[in-house]
Amino acid sequence: MKLRPAFHVNGFLVLLAWLVLTLFFGGAAALGYVAAAKDGNMPALIAAIAATVVVVVLALLATGLVIVNPNEAKVIQFFGRYIGSVSEPGFFSVVPLTDRKSISLRVRNFETQKLKVNDADGNPVEIAAVVVYRVVDSFKAAFAVDDYEEYVETQSEAAVRHLATTHPYDAHDAGRTSLRDGAEVAEELTVELRDRTEMAGIEVLEARITHLAYAPEIAQAMLVRQQAAQVVAARTHIVEGAVGMVSLALDRLTEQGVVELDEERRAAMVSNLLVVLCGDRATQPVVNAGSLYS
Questions:
Q1: Phi, psi (5° rounding) for residue 172?
Q2: Which residues in 30-118 belong to E strands, given as ranges?
Q3: Mean pLDDT lowest for which of 26-40, 58-72, 105-119, 252-266?
Q4: Where are the transmembrane segments (predicted)?
């Protein structure tokens, strides 16, 4: 079975007709009983009984009146059999003697608990995510799973755990996605949750990580590691720039014929320039009052 619209008509028209017919047949039944009580009129008694039966039937028909709120669906069952859903807002009349279950179609969000998981490198991390979803198939939400809200919560936590175990907290290799790559990780989490919740009639609109940190027992050690990695990266960048600047200076001196340097003096000049450019302290200039070779 799949989602289908249930039979429904305008509830105001049905209510108006119900009131008119109930008053008519109710009055007829009352007059019939009065006439039968006074004169013993058998045809009047039979008519009164028939009118009473009609009033009872009309009362049963009144059980089909239902109000559907905006962004809500009514899943309708007739003695256990699914006969359709009504998702249009308004006042309607459906098949009487049916069971109606309300399913909210509003957009909802759910935030997972802070989960402690080992990442792809085996480091314990704390991670949490927020999931934005809505029901798009009221039939699946009502009958495919026991409780679709609990199902979304469970699958969200499972997806977050799986995501954390397949990616490292920090990507130390080029081309490797880490948990800190927000857009890529969010898209991967959203796609996985859509696949997991489709069978429950749920559409996941967005899923994003809201909390990500190393577990407390290794947080300090990992902070030192991150700082060391940043220092190495900065030093590497400085050295690359300094080598480029030294190479450019030597090439310019040679091209413009400013000074002729042998290999030993070129090496000394390179060493001095690298010390000046790569040092983490300010250098003190020294004036050479003699010749270049003294």
A1: -90, -10
A2: 65-68, 72-78, 81-86, 90-93, 99-104, 108-111, 115-118
A3: 252-266
A4: 46-68
